[in-house]
Model the fold of this input.
Amino acid sequence: MGHRADNLNYDEAVDLLISLAVAEHIESPIFMAHLGGVRRKLVASFSPAMGSKVADLKRRILIGKASSAHILKDYRQPDARIVKTLHHAFLDRNAVTIEYLSVTGEPSKRKMQPHYLLMASPIWYVLAWDELRRSFLDIWEWSIQ
Done:
């Protein structure tokens, strides 16, 4: 009891706000009708430094429509180690070297800077700058090896 939102660390605050954004996107009138107020109060309770970081992240996380059955047929849970690596690269705005399977099934090595995350439930897409090919890249998180 007595915990305040500014006692959350940065990763916890991001996880909580993403969860709220996803729940708000569902627009369920049952048990979720007041999430906008909860989110605003949570953000208002952050320190100015944390609030600024979270506001920047909010602009970089996109919530879309649910993935289609066609996409979901090949979906598998991504490795927790890979998720953690991507999470930190995204939050810290750092480049990360990855290997992934292209849509043709070919392995490919990339050095990418994640700029945006797009959730098409339950799949997260990473929208990144590929430093090796000097172009933008969008990949499913589960295609990363």
